[in-house]
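Recap for those who missed Tuesday's class. We walked through two folding examples back to back. For each one, the amino acid string is listed first and its predicted structure tokens come directly after. Nothing is annotated here on purpose, so try labeling regions yourself before you check the end of the notes.
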Amino acid sequence: MNWQWFHRLGSPRWFFEKTDRWLPWLTAVTLILLLVGTVWGLLFAPPDYQQGNSYRIIYIHVPAAFLALAGYYVMAISGAIGIIWKMKLPYMMMAAAAPIGAALTFVSLVTGAIWGKPTWGTWWEWDARITSMLILFFLYIGIMALQNAFRNQDSADKACAILALVGTVNIPIIYKSVDWWNTLHQPATLKLTSAPTIHATMLYPLLTMVVAFYCLYALALFRYTRVEILRRERRTRWVADLALGIRPGDRPRTQKQDTEASE
């Protein structure tokens, strides 16, 4: 069976060349969706009958929380692929995903605190959902710190991948925390197994923002991964070509280089 396509997916150079073409389009789509979702949610969605206008922070809080959780799976799966198939690119993507996930988790915690003050009367409550999200933030920070704790890059990558995989146990806890324990945090607004608990006039801008944040995450992940590729591959010929103004794909590449680049 020909696995050339799979090894090409693990090639840093192949990834750099492909994303160089995707980034302008992805940037445009992300900006448009963010603009539409923000204006729609903040200016045109009706106020909530109980919370008034304070609920509008949901258009930042919920998408950030979604991507904080989904981004952890991206990081953990990348680490697993790196361990199993010994590819360089998944490790680079894992390292790039950590600061993005940490930032999104921080935004989720801060916006949740801002939302909680008028709703609960307190900035912080040690309930199950908030506490497990704080643990998620520390897991992201721990992986970032672990990346810099080793002189050997291979050892750092493997250690981070193991920590990321162990930390996945926290994700189902976050998802189910409002169902397993009595907490102040309201149940999930959007569920795959049931109808949304939010009116359509508020739901559609929220869905727009969720899609916008997914695009934003992909954009940030691509850009951070590209930086990580340039840092780790700085001694290779193709990166030296970039410094000389030779764009990715201008110099022909052999099949052997495709395979070696992913190892």
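Example two. Treat it independently of the first, because the proteins are unrelated.
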Amino acid sequence: MKSHSGDYLLEEYRSNGTLLKKVNVHLEIQAPVSKPAVSQMCLSPEQMNISCSSEGDGVEFNWTLNGVLLVPTRGYSQFPSNMTENIESPTGDQTERDKPSVSNVTISFLGQQTGNLMCGVWNNVSRDETVFHLAGCKAFFSHSPVVVAVRASVVTLLLLALCLGICHVHKKTRPTAVNEVGVMFLHSEAEA
């Protein structure tokens, strides 16, 4: 278990009990990496963030886009993996130290970027990778429910403004005719 990591002293003796040598050994047990999880978030038609996360200790990341290597990075761990104290659970359950940490890296791209993005992860124990197809954000924003709703709202407001404008123009021309009829009606009543 990870809690067994630490410094050990190895002593070697002859069969008669005399000491041959002493050796200090540092043992560090690491959890292997898990298959990386990759996600894409479009912030605007011009910008996207891609996140890659993996469980394991001392996780290293590398990225390729359409086969071209991008900058290798070290993940940010949710739990520190450099603790040295020996923590044991009285119930025999895994302690926080024995649970693998989760590392995450986020990179930004232009929103129109497309292609096959590979996130590779590795540590001293194992390695794995996930290939993710990037879709441009412009298409996402032009067909997203929010954009469609905003467009529908704008069209509705324009139609409402047009109707109000027509009603206002029509109302301005009607009062003149009504006033003339009203005046004529008043005259005819006064004559009677």
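Answers for example two:
The helical segments are 137-143, 145-191.
The two ends are 113 Å apart (CA to CA).
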